[in-house]
Amino acid sequence: MSDEPPVRLYCFAHSGNGVSVFDGWAAHTGPGVEPVPVRLPAATAWPTGPAPATRQALLNATLPQVTPTGAAPYAMYGHGLGAVIALTVAQALTEARLPGPCLLAVGACAPPTPPGGHISDHDLLHQLGGHIPPASDEGVFLRAMLPVLRADLELARSLHEAARRPLSTGPLTTPLLVVASQSNPLAPPAAADGWHAWTKGPRWQRTVPGHHFFVRGGRQLPRLLGRACRVARRLAQEPAPAG
What is the mean pLDDT of the chain? Predict the structure, then answer.
Protein backbone atom coordinates (compact mmCIF):
# COMPACT_ATOMS: atom_id res chain seq x y z
CA MET A 1 0.00 0.00 0.00
CA SER A 2 2.97 2.35 0.55
CA ASP A 3 3.46 2.74 -3.23
CA GLU A 4 -0.17 3.72 -3.76
CA PRO A 5 -1.57 7.22 -3.34
CA PRO A 6 -3.57 7.57 -0.14
CA VAL A 7 -7.33 7.43 0.00
CA ARG A 8 -8.40 11.04 0.41
CA LEU A 9 -11.12 11.21 3.08
CA TYR A 10 -13.15 14.36 2.43
CA CYS A 11 -14.73 15.47 5.71
CA PHE A 12 -17.90 17.56 5.98
CA ALA A 13 -18.50 19.19 9.38
CA HIS A 14 -21.75 19.48 11.29
CA SER A 15 -23.74 22.64 11.95
CA GLY A 16 -21.79 25.65 13.15
CA ASN A 17 -18.34 24.08 13.03
CA GLY A 18 -15.42 24.71 10.73
CA VAL A 19 -12.64 22.45 9.56
CA SER A 20 -10.96 22.64 12.98
CA VAL A 21 -13.26 19.88 14.20
CA PHE A 22 -11.09 17.50 12.15
CA ASP A 23 -7.78 18.75 13.57
CA GLY A 24 -5.55 15.85 14.53
CA TRP A 25 -7.37 13.25 12.46
CA ALA A 26 -4.32 12.59 10.29
CA ALA A 27 -2.59 11.09 13.33
CA HIS A 28 -5.41 8.59 13.91
CA THR A 29 -6.83 7.45 10.55
CA GLY A 30 -3.85 5.15 10.03
CA PRO A 31 -1.76 4.33 6.96
CA GLY A 32 -2.97 5.06 3.46
CA VAL A 33 -5.71 7.52 4.44
CA GLU A 34 -5.46 11.33 4.19
CA PRO A 35 -8.22 13.37 5.87
CA VAL A 36 -9.15 16.45 3.81
CA PRO A 37 -11.62 18.81 5.53
CA VAL A 38 -14.03 20.49 3.11
CA ARG A 39 -14.62 24.16 3.79
CA LEU A 40 -18.36 24.65 3.93
CA PRO A 41 -20.28 27.92 3.89
CA ALA A 42 -22.19 26.46 6.85
CA ALA A 43 -19.00 26.39 8.89
CA THR A 44 -17.33 29.63 7.87
CA ALA A 45 -19.62 32.32 6.48
CA TRP A 46 -23.05 31.64 7.91
CA PRO A 47 -22.65 33.19 11.37
CA THR A 48 -21.75 36.53 9.71
CA GLY A 49 -23.16 36.20 6.19
CA PRO A 50 -25.87 34.57 4.12
CA ALA A 51 -26.25 30.82 3.98
CA PRO A 52 -26.49 29.09 0.60
CA ALA A 53 -30.24 28.83 0.13
CA THR A 54 -30.32 26.12 -2.51
CA ARG A 55 -28.79 22.78 -3.36
CA GLN A 56 -27.08 24.28 -6.39
CA ALA A 57 -25.49 27.07 -4.36
CA LEU A 58 -24.12 24.49 -1.96
CA LEU A 59 -22.76 22.36 -4.80
CA ASN A 60 -21.12 25.43 -6.34
CA ALA A 61 -19.20 25.85 -3.08
CA THR A 62 -18.24 22.21 -2.53
CA LEU A 63 -17.81 20.44 -5.87
CA PRO A 64 -14.60 22.30 -6.82
CA GLN A 65 -13.04 20.96 -3.63
CA VAL A 66 -13.87 17.30 -4.16
CA THR A 67 -14.22 16.69 -7.91
CA PRO A 68 -11.81 13.83 -8.71
CA THR A 69 -8.89 14.70 -10.98
CA GLY A 70 -7.19 11.32 -11.24
CA ALA A 71 -7.57 7.62 -10.62
CA ALA A 72 -6.76 7.72 -6.89
CA PRO A 73 -9.69 6.58 -4.71
CA TYR A 74 -11.41 8.93 -2.32
CA ALA A 75 -14.04 8.68 0.40
CA MET A 76 -16.43 11.04 2.15
CA TYR A 77 -17.51 11.44 5.77
CA GLY A 78 -20.29 13.82 6.75
CA HIS A 79 -21.40 14.55 10.33
CA GLY A 80 -24.88 15.84 11.12
CA LEU A 81 -25.94 18.15 8.30
CA GLY A 82 -22.58 17.30 6.74
CA ALA A 83 -23.92 13.77 6.15
CA VAL A 84 -26.72 15.06 3.93
CA ILE A 85 -24.24 17.36 2.18
CA ALA A 86 -21.91 14.41 1.51
CA LEU A 87 -24.84 12.42 0.09
CA THR A 88 -25.82 15.41 -2.07
CA VAL A 89 -22.26 15.75 -3.43
CA ALA A 90 -22.02 11.99 -4.11
CA GLN A 91 -25.32 12.08 -6.01
CA ALA A 92 -24.22 15.12 -8.04
CA LEU A 93 -20.93 13.45 -9.02
CA THR A 94 -22.80 10.31 -10.06
CA GLU A 95 -25.24 12.27 -12.21
CA ALA A 96 -22.29 14.07 -13.81
CA ARG A 97 -20.85 10.60 -14.59
CA LEU A 98 -17.68 11.38 -12.64
CA PRO A 99 -15.91 8.76 -10.47
CA GLY A 100 -17.75 8.46 -7.19
CA PRO A 101 -16.29 7.83 -3.75
CA CYS A 102 -15.13 4.36 -2.80
CA LEU A 103 -16.93 4.93 0.52
CA LEU A 104 -19.70 7.23 1.75
CA ALA A 105 -19.70 7.45 5.55
CA VAL A 106 -22.39 9.34 7.47
CA GLY A 107 -22.65 10.05 11.17
CA ALA A 108 -25.10 11.60 13.65
CA CYS A 109 -27.79 12.05 11.02
CA ALA A 110 -31.07 10.36 10.24
CA PRO A 111 -31.63 9.54 6.54
CA PRO A 112 -33.46 12.06 4.35
CA THR A 113 -37.16 12.11 5.11
CA PRO A 114 -40.20 14.13 4.02
CA PRO A 115 -40.29 17.61 5.64
CA GLY A 116 -41.46 17.64 9.24
CA GLY A 117 -43.19 20.26 11.33
CA HIS A 118 -41.67 23.30 13.02
CA ILE A 119 -39.67 22.72 16.20
CA SER A 120 -39.36 25.40 18.87
CA ASP A 121 -36.01 26.75 20.05
CA HIS A 122 -36.57 25.14 23.45
CA ASP A 123 -37.30 21.73 21.97
CA LEU A 124 -34.40 21.98 19.52
CA LEU A 125 -31.93 22.81 22.29
CA HIS A 126 -33.36 20.05 24.46
CA GLN A 127 -33.03 17.47 21.70
CA LEU A 128 -29.47 18.51 20.92
CA GLY A 129 -28.30 19.00 24.49
CA GLY A 130 -30.30 16.44 26.42
CA HIS A 131 -29.02 16.60 30.00
CA ILE A 132 -26.21 19.11 29.21
CA PRO A 133 -26.34 21.93 31.83
CA PRO A 134 -27.20 25.27 30.16
CA ALA A 135 -24.32 27.03 31.97
CA SER A 136 -21.71 24.50 30.82
CA ASP A 137 -19.36 25.26 27.94
CA GLU A 138 -21.32 22.92 25.67
CA GLY A 139 -24.64 24.43 26.74
CA VAL A 140 -23.39 27.95 25.99
CA PHE A 141 -22.06 26.71 22.64
CA LEU A 142 -25.45 25.26 21.68
CA ARG A 143 -27.33 28.48 22.51
CA ALA A 144 -24.79 30.60 20.62
CA MET A 145 -25.14 28.36 17.57
CA LEU A 146 -28.96 28.44 17.54
CA PRO A 147 -29.26 30.86 14.55
CA VAL A 148 -26.84 28.71 12.56
CA LEU A 149 -28.70 25.55 13.52
CA ARG A 150 -31.95 27.16 12.37
CA ALA A 151 -30.43 28.03 8.98
CA ASP A 152 -29.05 24.52 8.72
CA LEU A 153 -32.46 22.99 9.37
CA GLU A 154 -33.93 25.00 6.50
CA LEU A 155 -31.14 23.91 4.15
CA ALA A 156 -31.50 20.32 5.37
CA ARG A 157 -35.18 20.33 4.42
CA SER A 158 -34.26 21.52 0.93
CA LEU A 159 -31.52 18.91 0.56
CA HIS A 160 -33.76 16.12 1.88
CA GLU A 161 -36.39 16.95 -0.71
CA ALA A 162 -33.83 17.01 -3.54
CA ALA A 163 -32.07 13.83 -2.38
CA ARG A 164 -35.32 11.86 -2.49
CA ARG A 165 -35.82 12.49 -6.20
CA PRO A 166 -34.72 9.57 -8.41
CA LEU A 167 -31.28 9.99 -9.99
CA SER A 168 -31.14 10.00 -13.79
CA THR A 169 -28.27 7.50 -13.53
CA GLY A 170 -30.06 5.16 -11.13
CA PRO A 171 -29.42 4.52 -7.43
CA LEU A 172 -25.97 4.92 -5.90
CA THR A 173 -23.83 1.78 -5.72
CA THR A 174 -21.34 3.34 -3.28
CA PRO A 175 -20.36 1.34 -0.17
CA LEU A 176 -21.98 2.98 2.85
CA LEU A 177 -20.92 3.19 6.50
CA VAL A 178 -23.44 4.61 8.98
CA VAL A 179 -22.09 5.72 12.38
CA ALA A 180 -24.60 6.35 15.16
CA SER A 181 -24.06 7.28 18.79
CA GLN A 182 -25.69 5.66 21.79
CA SER A 183 -27.22 8.87 23.21
CA ASN A 184 -28.28 10.96 20.21
CA PRO A 185 -32.04 11.64 20.19
CA LEU A 186 -31.82 13.29 16.76
CA ALA A 187 -30.38 10.20 15.10
CA PRO A 188 -30.54 7.12 17.35
CA PRO A 189 -29.04 3.82 16.17
CA ALA A 190 -32.49 2.54 15.17
CA ALA A 191 -32.94 5.47 12.76
CA ALA A 192 -29.63 4.66 11.10
CA ASP A 193 -31.20 1.57 9.53
CA GLY A 194 -33.05 3.84 7.09
CA TRP A 195 -29.77 4.81 5.40
CA HIS A 196 -29.52 1.33 3.89
CA ALA A 197 -32.07 2.27 1.24
CA TRP A 198 -29.79 4.96 -0.19
CA THR A 199 -27.32 2.71 -1.96
CA LYS A 200 -27.22 -0.70 -3.58
CA GLY A 201 -23.60 -1.14 -2.53
CA PRO A 202 -22.27 -2.88 0.61
CA ARG A 203 -23.59 -1.37 3.84
CA TRP A 204 -22.24 -1.36 7.38
CA GLN A 205 -23.41 0.23 10.61
CA ARG A 206 -21.43 1.01 13.78
CA THR A 207 -22.47 2.50 17.12
CA VAL A 208 -20.10 4.62 19.21
CA PRO A 209 -20.39 6.28 22.64
CA GLY A 210 -21.50 9.89 22.95
CA HIS A 211 -24.17 12.37 21.94
CA HIS A 212 -24.80 14.28 18.72
CA PHE A 213 -21.37 15.91 18.65
CA PHE A 214 -19.25 12.76 19.06
CA VAL A 215 -17.09 14.01 16.18
CA ARG A 216 -15.51 16.59 18.50
CA GLY A 217 -12.31 15.15 19.94
CA GLY A 218 -11.25 11.59 20.51
CA ARG A 219 -9.57 8.98 18.35
CA GLN A 220 -12.29 6.34 17.96
CA LEU A 221 -14.11 7.92 14.99
CA PRO A 222 -11.05 8.69 12.81
CA ARG A 223 -9.67 5.22 13.55
CA LEU A 224 -12.98 3.64 12.54
CA LEU A 225 -13.13 5.68 9.33
CA GLY A 226 -9.50 4.91 8.50
CA ARG A 227 -10.17 1.18 8.73
CA ALA A 228 -13.33 1.56 6.64
CA CYS A 229 -11.41 3.46 3.94
CA ARG A 230 -8.82 0.69 3.68
CA VAL A 231 -11.56 -1.94 3.38
CA ALA A 232 -13.37 0.13 0.75
CA ARG A 233 -10.15 0.52 -1.22
CA ARG A 234 -9.65 -3.24 -1.31
CA LEU A 235 -13.24 -3.74 -2.44
CA ALA A 236 -12.77 -1.17 -5.22
CA GLN A 237 -9.69 -3.04 -6.46
CA GLU A 238 -11.45 -6.39 -6.68
CA PRO A 239 -12.57 -7.51 -10.16
CA ALA A 240 -16.23 -6.90 -10.93
CA PRO A 241 -18.41 -10.05 -10.80
CA ALA A 242 -18.92 -11.73 -14.16
CA GLY A 243 -22.27 -11.09 -15.80
Answer: 84
